[in-house]
């Protein structure tokens, strides 16, 4: 089990650490009627799109117990190089405010619709341009490599953010097990396709219009970067289904939709793979999806974000978005010769 002691013996702040002033203090704001009153939504609510209203109420809504988060405890170590000072996003928000369109487009739909997802048995294949193709079962995901805890910022393209204590292992470590061939230039990822378990996959409207299975990709140098992480847990336990059980990608310098959930295939390729949101709306969602406050989404600004945390309405004020989500020291060199306005 983790010793749960963070930053002890560390005399300097690591480059990726989040200043405590950026993290919202923990408190509870339970009365959604006060939200309407405080935001002045009573008279104008009808003019706000439904999904935006839902996001507001998910953010400030009534706190509920996390009774569904009863998954297994994990054995892991806390990596002091990836700890963030200050408050983490409360567990109740992390497991109830999600984008996982396989279970619906509302922020709480994944929590409500995914609890029956069967994650054991599970098979994850690593194939393509590799020397040693791998097929990993559920136990392999938890035991093949040493598990560590990392606190990462998560920045959604919708301009909200969290700070989450992920548990898992470096993606590079898994790729090394498979032996990457010199011909490989990219890594492709694929989510489970199971319409019986994932209602958004059998109902195009419920699933946001995405062509399933959900697919994502990285350049090989991005995948091998020290920050790229495969998570099998959070808050000391295995991942709940709404957060991508049993294994998901976490690439903290990119918008959240790049961090594909419930992965069943990882393929090493010699060309750039297709990605789901880029296929659906290429003018809005590029392949790279690096967090960039200087490049707006066509329909909203990316200059600021709302940090989701427990607290009153005023504690959720917007904060400036950092280039590469604050991880520039680790990843900026990957894009030194790339026009990030063109390759967004």
Automatic annotation (TrEMBL):
Pfam families attached to this UniProt entry: Oxidored_molyb
| Signal peptide boundaries | none
Q: Which InterPro entries match?
A: MsrP, OxRdtase_Mopterin-bd_dom, OxRdtase_Mopterin-bd_sf
State the function annotated in the UniProt record: Part of the MsrPQ system that repairs oxidized periplasmic proteins containing methionine sulfoxide residues (Met-O), using respiratory chain electrons. Thus protects these proteins from oxidative-stress damage caused by reactive species of oxygen and chlorine generated by the host defense mechanisms. MsrPQ is essential for the maintenance of envelope integrity under bleach stress, rescuing a wide series of structurally unrelated periplasmic proteins from methionine oxidation.
The chemistry this enzyme catalyses reads: L-methionyl-[protein] + a quinone + H2O = L-methionyl-(S)-S-oxide-[protein] + a quinol; L-methionyl-[protein] + a quinone + H2O = L-methionyl-(R)-S-oxide-[protein] + a quinol
Q: Identify the residues that the record assigns to the Oxidoreductase molybdopterin-binding domain, covering every copy.
A: 119-277
The cofactor(s) it depends on are:
Mo-molybdopterin
Q: What is this protein called?
A: Protein-methionine-sulfoxide reductase catalytic subunit MsrP
